[in-house]
Design goal:
The chain is of the alpha+beta class. Helices cover about 25% and strands about 25% of the residues. β10 and β11 form a beta hairpin.
Length: about 230
């Protein structure tokens, strides 16, 4: 299996090397072996395979995959959905950052497909751990967001599952259901999908939430590495 963790609000993780060193120590790697990406709210994939170039220069991406047992990979969130993927026997892992734009562009599916294409990992052997994010109780969006999903090719029937009308052209977006639907659509077994269903806005005293704290919000990390 794989080792993984989700941090909470006791760490800010905004250019604080000591905090990242603590994260690295907890998951059992050197600080320089916690590999990050420059997240751009899309579905770009970064690959950090065994024998990667050192030092790591974070590329623009919202998905990162690796089969390097010496590295941990991580994404950062403050309301967006953090998804960690691992093959049942720990042969490769992935980390995915998906806000509404990433969900619209299928970043979740890109993560599963990258594991399959790069490392031959069959989707039915992938386990997903989905950390805290803003919940359907609190994630209000406008008509333009729903339209962006439709323009990206999502069928109206699936959008009816994800978007609950709230009046005045507003919707509540269920990123948890969207995540599950995309993971199942990519071939994961429902029994292998584990979603925390903890809302970062509701529990803003425990988690960082951009919707609550604004630009000063810290970041939570979702970190995974191949098991030792």
């Amino acid at each position: 299996m794989a080792d993984h963790l989700f941090t909470v609000a006791n760490l800010m993780l905004r250019d604080r090397p000591a905090e990242w060193a603590a994260v690295a120590n907890f998951i059992g790697v050197r600080a320089e072996d916690v590999l990050l990406v420059r997240q751009v709210h899309e579905a770009k994939v970064a690959v950090a395979s065994r024998g990667r170039e050192t030092p790591w220069t974070p590329p623009e991406a919202d998905v990162i995959v690796t089969n390097d047992p010496q590295s941990a990979i991580a994404v950062r969130v403050a309301d967006c959905v953090p998804i960690l993927l691992a093959e049942e026997n720990g042969r490769a892992v992935a980390a995915v950052h998906a806000g509404w734009r990433g969900m619209a562009t299928r970043a979740v599916i890109e993560g599963v497909e990258a594991l399959q294409e790069r490392y031959g990992i069959r989707p039915e052997l992938v386990v997903a751990a989905v950390g805290p994010s803003i919940g359907p109780c609190c994630y209000e969006v406008g008509e333009s967001t729903r339209a962006a999903f439709q323009e990206a090719g999502h069928h109206p029937s699936i959008l009816d599952r994800w978007f609950e009308p709230r009046g005045n052209g507003k919707f509540h977006l269920d990123l948890w259901r969207a995540t599950r639907d995309q993971l199942e659509g990519a071939g994961l077994s429902p029994d292998n999908i584990h979603i925390a269903e903890l809302c970062t806005k509701t529990h803003a005293g425990v988690f960082h939430s951009y919707r609550v704290q604004g630009a000063g919000a810290g970041r939570m990390a979702a970190v995974v590495k191949m098991g030792g």
